[in-house]
Each structure stands twice: as C-alpha cells, then as structure tokens.
C-alpha cells in the first residue's frame, strides 16, 4: 500500500480545514493511501513531523499557510530521500500556491495532491541550516509580516498589513552591507532586500515580471538603497506597490547564489516567518530539489 504523511495546521486561515477534513481524508483514502496524520501543535512542529515521519513515505501532503509549507519542506530536506509533496493552501497568505497554480479550493488541491503531476521546483538554501520556498527578505516592509499576530493576518490579509508597515516609514532603518555574487558586487546602505522564486509576492507589484520560472535554478533579487529625500522615498514606494518606473535606488538582477555581509545582525524573513538575525548570509538556489504535486496543466 502507498504511504502518505499528511501534516496540517488546524489554526491557519480561520481554521478553514475544519469543515473539509473528512472529505480530504476520504480523497486520500480512495486514492489508495495508508495515512499517517499529524496535527501541528506549535511553531516548528510541521518541520519536526516532516523529518520524523517523512522517511519512506510515497507522498507528504501539508495544509496550512506559507509558514507550514516552509516548515514541511525544511523538514523534508533533512531526509536522505525526498518524497513528493502535495500542498493544500489554507492560510491567509498563499502567494506561492498561486505561483504554482495550486487551487485555493481545498478539495481540488487535495485531488491534485494525489492524482496530479509531480513538478520539480527550486528551493532556496539559507546559510546551510534553513530553507525558503519563495522569499527571503530583510528590512523595511518585512517586520510587520511576522510581527502581526495570526488573527490580524487572517482578518486583514497580506496587502493590508504590508500597507500598515508604511506607517512606520519615518523611522525606516538602513543597513550597511556588501552584496556579492557572480553577476554583481554592491556596497552601501540598504533599506530592503528580497530574494525570490515566485510570480507574486503579496502587495509588491514592482517585482512581478512575466518570465519568472520556479525551476530554472535562478532567483530574482531586488535591493533598495537608502533614500536621501522624502521624494526619493515616495518614488521607491510607488515602485514597490504601484509598479511605477524603477529608479536609481533600485537594483534588480538574477543569480543562482549570493552573499550578503553586514556590519550588524539583520533580521531575515523566510516565507513570511522570522528566519533569524545574521551578519553574514549565503543564499543558494537548490535547483529542482523537491517535486510538488499539482493539477495536470495541458
Ligand atoms: Mg527561478
């Protein structure tokens, strides 16, 4: 019998899995799987469960928000062999699900997990010990995303709390850093940076480009230098949120790996969750590392 590990976060997205759970388990059972089910109990639990019970499974399915997906993949990465992964989005922020074209209808996503097609995607390796699926970021606009309590996230949604972050722009902090990769070397004061492998990132329109691929071994990088005047800051914000013309403060490029070195520890956010404070960060694209199940796209 095929073996599946199903990990779900019962609290994400206003506990929307509650009414769907029986049907989801029925879909898995009908598809011929012997099930191991783990209900996450606290932060970090999805990662532990994926590591502890993921070995020798044919398929691991997780349900929750971006954080649950991140934890599950982080747990799987510690295994010797990686099972295929199914994802049933349930959080208020499911940026990556839309990038992957995974349905927001939980039952359709459950069907795709068992009868779809395995699609290899790149995983971001962060400093040897952490991973991200679609975004690693620091600086302005990021603090709010992991400091906002879950309930507020559920009510407001992603865009709203991004905009809430703009209230604190008067106190915007800049970081002295050096950024190194094969393509480019930058030095100076930066207020924001994001390394992504996704088609959409919350409210940020400036990053969205047509030709992003999730399996090309490359990240899209966006770095923003400290503005000198209020007008510069307005231009930056317009660029980030309204997709106006880029300006001299904006650096955009692609790379397979990069290093960021700063004078002081910087708080990083990985897939919307706190990723630790670090002075030196190395980020590597692990090409086609995990296969995600999704509906057959013809
Ligand atoms: Mg890519």
TrEMBL record:
GO MF terms held by the record: ATP binding; ATP-dependent diacylglycerol kinase activity; metal ion binding
GO cellular component terms attached to this protein's record: plasma membrane
Organism classification: Bacteria, Bacillati, Bacillota, Clostridia, Lachnospirales
Keyword Kinase annotated: yes
Keyword rRNA processing: no
UniProtKB keywords: Kinase, Lipid biosynthesis, Lipid metabolism, Magnesium, Metal-binding, Phospholipid biosynthesis, Phospholipid metabolism, Transferase
Organism expressing this protein natively: Lacrimispora amygdalina
Record InterPro entries: ATP-NAD_kinase_N (IPR017438), Diacylglycerol/lipid_kinase (IPR005218), Diacylglycerol_kinase_cat_dom (IPR001206), Lipid_Phosphate_FormReg (IPR050187), NAD/diacylglycerol_kinase_sf (IPR016064)
Cofactor(s) listed in the protein's UniProt record: Mg(2+)
Protein name: Diacylglycerol kinase
Residue span, DAGKc domain: 1-131
Underlying gene: dagK
Family per similarity comment: Belongs to the diacylglycerol/lipid kinase family.
Biological-process GO terms, alphabetical: phospholipid biosynthetic process
SMART domains for this protein: DAGKc
Highest taxon, organism lineage: Bacteria
Pfam families from the UniProt entry: DAGK_cat
SUPFAM superfamilies per record: NAD kinase/diacylglycerol kinase-like
């Amino acid at each position: 019998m095929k073996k599946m590990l199903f990990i779900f976060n019962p609290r994400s997205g206003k506990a929307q899995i509650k009414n769907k759970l029986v049907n989801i388990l029925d879909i898995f059972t009908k598809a011929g799987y012997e099930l191991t089910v783990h209900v996450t109990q606290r932060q970090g639990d999805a990662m532990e469960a994926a590591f502890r019970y993921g070995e020798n499974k044919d398929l691991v399915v997780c349900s929750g928000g971006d954080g649950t997906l991140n934890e599950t993949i982080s747990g799987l990465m510690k295994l010797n062999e990686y099972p295929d992964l199914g994802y049933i989005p349930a959080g208020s922020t499911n940026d990556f699900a839309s990038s992957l074209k995974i349905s927001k209808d939980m039952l359709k996503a459950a069907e795709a997990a068992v009868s779809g097609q395995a699609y290899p995607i790149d995983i971001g390796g962060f400093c040897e010990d952490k991973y991200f699926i679609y975004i690693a970021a620091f600086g302005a606009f990021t603090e709010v995303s992991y400091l906002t309590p879950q309930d507020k996230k559920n009510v407001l949604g992603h865009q709203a709390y991004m905009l809430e972050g703009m209230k604190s722009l008067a106190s915007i902090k800049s970081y002295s850093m050096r950024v190194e990769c094969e393509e480019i070397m930058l030095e100076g004061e930066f207020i924001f940076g994001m390394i992504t492998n996704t088609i959409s990132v919350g409210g940020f329109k400036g990053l969205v480009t047509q030709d992003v691929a999730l399996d090309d071994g490359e990240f899209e990088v966006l770095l923003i230098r400290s503005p000198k005047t209020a007008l510069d800051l307005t231009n930056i914000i317009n660029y980030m949120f309204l997709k106006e013309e880029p300006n001299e403060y904006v650096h955009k490029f692609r790379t397979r790996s990069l290093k960021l070195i700063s004078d002081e520890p910087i708080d990083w956010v990985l897939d919307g969750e706190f990723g630790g404070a670090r002075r030196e960060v190395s980020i590597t694209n692990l090409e086609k590392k995990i296969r995600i199940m999704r509906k057959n796209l013809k």
